[in-house]
TrEMBL record:
Plays a role in short-term synaptic plasticity in a subset of GABAergic neurons in the brain. It comes from Gopherus evgoodei (Goodes thornscrub tortoise). The gene is LAMP5. Belongs to the LAMP family. This is Lysosome-associated membrane glycoprotein 5. It is found in: Cell projection, Dendrite; Cell projection, Growth cone membrane; Cytoplasmic vesicle, Secretory vesicle, Synaptic vesicle membrane; Early endosome membrane. The lineage of its organism: Eukaryota, Metazoa, Chordata, Craniata, Vertebrata.
Length: 275
């Protein structure tokens, strides 16, 4: 509710086009909705918040911390051999955001440093067969990262610098029942392969809360579906407490039984004499 109130006051919208546009172009424009970068409202300096809206209604929300680990070559000290370094590229706070929403497909595109870096997340909603019935679910089915190793902020003295594209392959991540948001505080690792199949780029996601479909209220996530890692960690945190309570209860019961037994054996009932 707090995010909803603050977002309403700070949101920016895409300006309408006041000109003649052909029908097919209008269809393409209509497919791309209003987008808002609300990362400034995040309580965590590493976590970003993105919102896509359609006809004034929120259709996609995403909160997460992300960074990409990108290997690249530099010259060795002998200027003959090559050694591999790794650039650690965080998601920038002032990123430019674009997005699309549909009933079964959604997309979030994030660019920063004058579009030198672009991260694209694709989501799909589909039917999933269960033992009892077909159940609607959504998942993240594709990730693409475009980067330029000639950029000097994160790439230092790269050999043969240039633009590269890394894609996920056969991705099926964040599987969530339809109508719910996905939540995972634990860090998740997703591998992306460059188009020349020479490098593996690693995407690290944490503090994730995403819902690309079926949002019922503006700036408000639906009920969360926790990832297995979070559920296991929560169980590991609560299990010692539960076991401690059970042990304490057993000790109390044992003491009570001992106390009652001690009283009964200390003061035996006197036998009644006949007349």
């Amino acid at each position: 509710a707090e995010l909803r109130a603050r977002a309403t006051a700070s949101k920016t919208r895409v300006s309408p086009l006041i000109c003649f546009v052909p029908a097919d172009a209008m269809a393409r424009i209509g497919a791309e909705q209003e987008v808002e970068n609300l990362s400034g409202l995040s309580t965590s300096p590493e976590k970003d918040i993105f919102v896509v809206r359609d006809n004034g209604t929120t259709c996609l929300m995403a909160e997460f911390a992300a960074k990409l680990m990108v290997p690249y070559d530099v010259s060795a000290s002998n200027y003959v051999d090559l050694i591999t370094e790794e650039a650690e590229i965080p998601l920038a706070r002032g990123a430019e955001v674009r997005g699309k929403c549909d009933t079964t497909e959604s997309e979030l595109q994030i660019s920063w440093l004058d579009k030198v870096y672009t991260l694209k997340l694709y989501f799909v909603k589909e039917s999933h067969n269960t033992t009892k019935r077909q159940e609607a679910v959504w998942k993240m089915n594709k990730i693409q990262f475009v980067y330029d190793s000639s950029e000097r902020t994160y790439f230092r003295d790269a050999v043969n610098p240039g633009k590269h594209t890394a894609n996920s392959h056969h991705l099926s991540a964040l599987l969530t029942p339809a109508g719910k948001s996905y939540e995972c505080q634990a860090q998740q690792t997703i591998s992306l392969i460059t188009s020349d199949h020479q490098r593996t780029v690693t995407l690290l996601l944490s503090e994730v809360r995403i819902q690309p479909f079926d949002i019922s209220a503006d700036f408000v996530f639906s009920e969360e579906h926790k990832c297995p890692v979070d559920e296991r960690e929560q169980l590991e945190e609560t299990l010692p407490l539960i076991l401690g309570l059970i042990l304490g209860l057993m000790i109390v019961i044992t003491i009570c039984i001992y106390h009652i037994h001690h009283k009964l054996t200390r003061f035996p009932r006197k036998s009644q004499k006949g007349f």
